[in-house]
């Protein structure tokens, strides 16, 4: 690890807060994924781990002639304290979105925790009188809270480390890290090649902060059209949690085991592509 970083057995959350800059010093988070296109862009919001660039490869088959832009998480590339409120994140992203595209209609897609952020962004855009033509929630949380509501960020961070041990075999937090990080990059593209081992545990704090924000978010009813893409096994939970909030929902259930499988599924590409303007 780089000098000044702590091994994950120490208080990594407090360490990140002590050694990072203010959230408001973070550079812009909106990045071009596919710059070419003559129609209004599709804006995509990152996974809970902050990563969004992988979506550029998926979006080529569904973008319907639109440029594709992605929001990376605040703090994904720079050492700043991550925000812990969906409202705060959405407010920041809406400002960047409207600087890139001052007028609607807008097309939004959110992935996992990013679906919650995109949902709040759509609320704010509509409150400003803007049209949100497409709001797509891909593998959204199938009910919140998903974790123990009493957990703070330290609890979520420790839960994340347990998941890394169980799923990826990260038993030794230093010796096993290069192998695990390489597998997470190549097998499932959870991180991009530029992510360094010395950034890894700080990025797990970013995950904990983003999930903390998700877990304390109370979604309001939304009266615009919404496309939800969910795993078949989450059917009843999505119906119980999300559909009562929506006036005009379209639920697409996909037989997938993982978020990666769902995002690469041809049914998602066809359905979202039609919503974005492909011919049926």
UniProtKB/TrEMBL annotation:
<dbReference type="InterPro" id="IPR001031">
    <property type="entry name" value="Thioesterase"/>
</dbReference>
<feature type="domain" description="Thioesterase">
    <location>
        <begin position="41"/>
        <end position="239"/>
    </location>
</feature>
<dbReference type="InterPro" id="IPR029058">
    <property type="entry name" value="AB_hydrolase_fold"/>
</dbReference>
<protein>
    <recommendedName>
        <fullName>Thioesterase domain-containing protein</fullName>
    </recommendedName>
</protein>
<dbReference type="Pfam" id="PF00975">
    <property type="entry name" value="Thioesterase"/>
</dbReference>
């Amino acid at each position: 690890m780089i000098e000044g970083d702590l091994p994950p057995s120490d208080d990594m959350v407090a360490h990140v807060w002590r050694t990072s800059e203010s959230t408001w010093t973070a550079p812009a988070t909106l990045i071009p994924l596919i710059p070419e296109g003559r129609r209004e862009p599709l804006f995509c919001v990152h996974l809970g781990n902050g990563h969004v660039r992988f979506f550029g490869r998926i979006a080529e088959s569904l973008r319907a002639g639109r440029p594709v832009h992605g929001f990376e998480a605040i703090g994904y590339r720079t050492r700043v304290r991550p925000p812990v409120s969906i409202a705060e994140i959405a407010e920041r992203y809406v400002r960047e979105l409207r600087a890139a595209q001052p007028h609607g209609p807008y097309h939004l897609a959110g992935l996992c925790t990013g679906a919650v952020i995109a949902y709040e962004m759509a609320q704010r855009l509509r409150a400003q009188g803007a049209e949100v033509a497409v709001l797509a929630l891909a593998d959204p949380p199938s009910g919140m809270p998903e974790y123990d509501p009493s957990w703070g960020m330290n609890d979520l961070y420790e839960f994340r480390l347990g998941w890394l041990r169980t799923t990826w075999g990260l038993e030794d937090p230093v010796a096993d890290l290069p192998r695990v990080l390489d597998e997470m990059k190549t097998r499932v593209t959870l991180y991009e090649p530029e992510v360094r081992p010395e950034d890894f545990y700080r990025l797990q704090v970013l995950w904990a902060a983003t999930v903390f924000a998700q877990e304390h978010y109370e979604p309001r009813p939304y009266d615009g059209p919404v496309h939800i893409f969910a795993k078949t096994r989450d059917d009843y939970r999505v119906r119980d949690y999300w559909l009562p909030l929506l006036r005009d929902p379209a639920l697409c259930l996909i037989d997938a085991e993982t978020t990666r499988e769902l995002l690469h599924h041809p049914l998602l590409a066809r359905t979202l592509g039609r919503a974005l303007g492909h011919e049926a």
